[in-house]
Amino acid sequence: MRRLHPLSxxxxxxxxxxxxxxPGLIVLLFKPGGRYEIWLMIFFVPAVLAALAKYASYRYRxxxxxxxxxxxxxxxxxxxxPYGRIQNIxxxxxxxxxxxxxxxxxxxxxxxxxxxxxxRVLSLSAVGAMREHVFRxxxxxxxxxxxxxxxxxxxxxxPPLVKLGLRDLVLVGLTNHRGMAVVAAAxxxxxxxxxxxxxxEDLVQQKMTELAVxxxxxxxxxxxxxxxxxxxxxxxxxxLTLLSIAWAAMRYHGFTLRARGDDLRSEYGLLTHITAxxxxxxxxxxxxxxxxxxxxxxRASVQVETAGQSRGDEGRGVDRLWLAPMIGxxxxxxxxxxxxxxxxxxxxxxxxxAVRAWRRIIKRGIxxxxxxxxxxxxxxxxxxxxxxxxxxxxAGLHARLYVKYAGYALAPEAVVYxxxxxxxxxxxxxxxxxxxxxxxESPFDRWNRMASVHVDTAGAGRxxxxxxxxxxxxxxxxxxxxxxxxxxxxxxFRW
Amino acid sequence: MxxxxxxxxxxxxxxxxxxxxxxxxxxxxxxxxxxxxxALATLIGVLSALLAATNTMIQGLxxxxxxxxxxxxxGLMALLWPPVRYRHISYRVDDKGIQIRKGVWWKxxxxxxxxxxxxxxxxxxxxxxxFGLATLIxxxxxxxxxxxxxxxxxxxxxxxxxDHLLEDEDPRSDV
Lengths: 495, 175
Description:
The complex is a heterodimer. Helix content of chain A is 44%, strand content 25%. Chain A is an alpha+beta fold. Chain A has a 7-stranded antiparallel beta sheet with strand order 6-5-4-10-9-8-7. A 7-stranded antiparallel beta sheet of chain A has the order 13-12-11-17-16-15-14. In chain A, strand 2 and strand 3 (77-82) form a beta hairpin. The longest helix of chain A has 31 residues, at 221-251. Chain A is globular. By secondary structure, chain B is of the alpha+beta class. Chain B has helices at residues 22-52, 57-87, 126-131, 155-166, and strands at residues 17-18, 90-94, 97-102, 107-113, 119-123, 133-139, 147-154. Chain B is elongated.
C-alpha cells in the first residue's frame, strides 16, 4: 500500500482554510460585526483534525488489474477501480502544487457524475508511475471494445494537434465573454461586504453635483450627458474585453492538444496547470463555432461533449469541453481527421432546410420589430416608424441569411447540422452515439407542413449547439427520422 | 415490416397502437382531484381575503363569481381534455425499438432504438392501480430524452413492452 505525499496535510488544511477561514477573515477586516462567516471559522479546528486523519488513513495500491483506494478511520471505505474501466487520469496543479512538485489526481470512469477518486496530493513521480501502471495494465482490456484501434501507441512527442499562441489567446478573450463573469463575481463580493454601507449618501450626492459638467460651458446639457453616457459604456466594454483577454490568457496559457494512442491529451493553464485526457471514443458530439472575429482571422473554435461529464466540471478545474479554444482553418482539417477519422467533413453533401421557412422567420422578426417600435413610440413619437422600418429590413435580412446558411448532411457515419449566419455553428454526431430521436411539430409547423428533428446524445448539454434541425419539410423530416433510427439501431452503443 | 418475429407475443408487431381506453377515466379522476384541490385552496384564499379587507358587497360577489368561473372551467377541462389527449397518443413497438407519439397542439414523436434503452420503470399510482393500468418509463443515456414516460398502458402490456425492450440485443444488430 502507498501513502499520499506528506505535503497533502498542508494542502488539505490549506483548502479548509480557504473555505472556512478566508470568508471570516475578510469580514473581520473589512466589515466588523457578527456574521455567520465568523462562526464558520470554528469548523476549521475539526477540519485540521480531519486532514491529519485523512493522511494517516489514506492508502492506495496498484494491483495487477485494479486500483484500490482505502480511506476512513471510523467508516472504512475500500474502493476497487478496474484499470479497464478507468477513462481518465487528470492532473490539476495550482501554483502551490507546482512550487512543491506535487499534483492533485482525479481518476474517472464512465459512470461519472463525479471523479471516482480524487487523490490529493501525489508527487509527480508517483503520478507518472500510476499513469504508466494503469494504462499499461489496462491496455489489453481498453483496446478490446474499440472498433477502430489499429493505431500503435507511440509515446514519442508528436507535434501537437492544437497549440495556442498569444494571438490565439487574445482572440479567445475577444470571443469568450468572460469579462462579464469576472465583473459578476466582483459585484457579488462587493455586495457581500458592502464597503459603501457607512458612507454618507448626501455627501456623495454633493460631490457628484460638484463634478458634473456645468451647463454654462455653452454646449447643450443633454448632448453632454449623452456623450458622457456613450463614453462610459465604451469604457466599460473596453474594460470587460480586457478582462476577458486576461482571463483567457491565464486559463488557456500554453494550451496544447496531443494525440496519445486513442486518447487526446490537453495541457493548459498559467497559474493552475491542468492535464486532461479526452478519450476519443467518449466524444458524443463535436461542435464548431465561427463568429465574425473567427472568420476575420481565419479561425474556428471546437468543443466536444463527453459522456459522464457533469456541468460543474469547469468549476472544479478540469475542463474537457474545449478541443481547441482557437484553431486556424488550415490546422482544423488535420484535427478533425484525427478526432473523427470515419467522418469526411470535407466532402459533405449539404441539404437545405425548407426554403419557405424564411417567410415564417421574417413574420416573427416583424412582430418583434412592431412590439419594439410601439414601445419606442411612447418615448420617440413618430420617429418610432424609422425603428419599425429598420427592424423590418433587419428581419428580412436575417430570415434570408438564416435559410441560406442552415443545412444538414447525412454522412455514412454521422449526421451533421449547421446553422447561424452571424455566428456559424456546425455540430457532428456519429450514429453510434445517438440515444434517442424526436420529431417535433408545433401548430405553426403543421400549418406550414414542416417539422423539426432533434437528435439526443449523452453528455451534459453544455455545448450550446446540437443537432436540432428546425424548419424541415414534413416529408423530409419523416424520411430523415426513419433513416436516423435505422442507422442508430444497427450500431451498438458504447461509452 | 416485421420479417421474422423473435417475440412470441403480439407486442412487437410494428403496428401503431392506442393506449388503454380506461386511461381516459384515470386522467379524468386525477384531473378532477387536482382541480378540486386547487379550487378549494383558492376558495380559502378568496374568503380569507374578503374577511380581512373591508369590501363592498359588489366587490365580494365579483370575487366569488370569478372563483366560480375559473373553478368550473378547470373542472370542465378535467372532464373534456382526457378523451382528446387519448386520441393523440399512440405507440409502436417492433424489433428495432419503440416509437411514441404524443401531443395535441405540439406534437412529438420520440423514437428509441432497442440498443439505447438503459433501463425501464413500470410505475402504478393508486388510481392507475385500481384500474389495472401502469406508466412505463424508458430511460436512455440521452440528455433531453433521458426519461420518456408512456402512461395509460394496461399493466400486462407495460410489463410486456418492458420485457421486450430489456431482452438481449438481437444478434443481427451487432455489427
